[in-house]
Amino acid sequence: MITLKGENIYLRALESEDLEFVHAVENDESIWEISNTQTPYSKFLIKQYLEKAHKDIFEVKQLRLVISSYEEVALGMIDLFDFDFRNSRAGVGILVKEPSDRQKGYGHEALKLLIDYSFTHLGLHQLYCNISEENKASVKLFTNQGFKEIGLKKDWNIVNGTYKNEYLFQLINN
């Protein structure tokens, strides 16, 4: 049985009812640096995205899940992206939307659930993530789950006219 349920949160598929939440996340300029977003998204485009969200990861190369409390509150999202079946790997992205919900273990629990799902049910060999050198909370989150820093990409992203370094982390399923 596939379990995407943790002690305090669970991971669920995107639903059409998530339109307002996804729209708010995608248009929050304070997190664009993390998601490499360049422009706002309309509700129309997000609605189209949600209509296709049911498609299989093998088809669309992405799986986006909502991090939800057991009180049915959407706390954030966690993604597998650039799914590469041939090489058995995928990238991981995670966001807990509200600063007041961060540092409460939700991200840790969600990442653990996604890692277990990726290795056990998708049969992936490795996961990777890209983290800004300044994002100490994400570095801590991923290293606590066993991800290893394998490189630093110098001047990788430009943010507000300043180039920033980005770490590459990797977790290999042994």
TrEMBL record:
InterPro entries: Acyl_CoA_acyltransferase (IPR016181), GNAT_dom (IPR000182). It holds the Pfam family Acetyltransf_3. It comes from the Bacteria. Residues 9-170 form the N-acetyltransferase domain. This is GNAT family N-acetyltransferase. It comes from Flaviramulus aquimarinus.
